[in-house]
Specification:
mainly alpha
Length: about 240
């Protein structure tokens, strides 16, 4: 079962491409641990943008009665607030660390402007944007997954994945902010994030891992089909 999680295949190709490219950038000195850390955080914003497109696609093809022009602004506000709160925590860590990247954690716009100008940040953000676009195109649009979910379901889809991602980033932030081992920290962060990605990607329809988790999670109350749908939605 673990082989299906880590061995390169068409399902985890995007995750492997990200890992190899980021490690290459670290090794040649184009980016450091802080760039990697904040790039992963900024990726949550990119994911949110593409989730709006997924909501609209589900509305257009499958859920035309949904109040899409109310739900998308609500999602943007709620999701944006969630990211803003997590940003303050992360900026606070770096306001006390050795690197002193920011002065005031609550100056979110100013701090993000600082982060955007970190060495190699635009390269990494470009990579993440392309990756998310390709995932949207090949894994969602071309697979017609908009026919499988209602708008409300898609709206809350990113939160579980984003919580895991940001929790990992904030924990890594403590080590990076108070450490001088930039290259080691950067590679460790890439590996940790890759492990999370590989497991989430491996939870797919008709996968061994999905069947295993459903069987272990089944408590006789929620049907296995509902559990399967919830897991697929969470990891989409």
């Amino acid at each position: 079962m673990l082989r299906s999680v880590f061995i390169p295949n068409k399902n985890n190709a995007f995750a492997w491409a990200n890992v190899l490219f980021l490690v290459l950038l670290v090794v040649i000195g184009e980016i450091d641990a802080r760039t990697i850390l904040f790039a992963y955080f900024l990726e949550t914003i990119i994911i949110g943008v593409f989730n709006c497109f997924k909501m609209y696609a589900s509305y257009k093809h499958n859920d035309t009665t949904a109040k899409i022009w109310q739900l998308i602004p609500f999602f943007i506000f709620h999701y944006g607030f969630f990211i803003a709160v997590q940003s303050v925590f992360l900026f606070a860590i770096f306001s006390f660390g050795k690197h002193s990247l920011v002065k005031e954690p609550f100056s979110i716009i100013e701090n993000y402007n600082t982060v955007i100008h970190l060495d190699g940040m635009l390269i990494v953000i470009g990579l993440f944007t392309i990756t998310q676009f390709l995932k949207y195109l090949f894994d969602f649009s071309m697979m017609k997954k908009y026919n499988e979910y209602k708008v409300n379901e898609v709206m809350f889809k990113p939160y579980a994945r984003i919580f895991i991602q940001q929790f990992t980033v904030i924990l890594a932030g403590f080590f990076i902010a108070f450490s001088n081992a930039s290259i080691v920290a950067a590679i460790l962060l890439i590996i940790i994030r890759a492990l999370v990605d590989f497991f989430l990607v491996a939870i797919r329809e008709n996968s061994i891992l999905l069947d295993y988790i459903v069987e272990k999670s089944y408590d006789g109350k929620t049907s296995k089909e509902d559990l399967r749908k919830q897991l697929l939605l969470m990891t989409e």
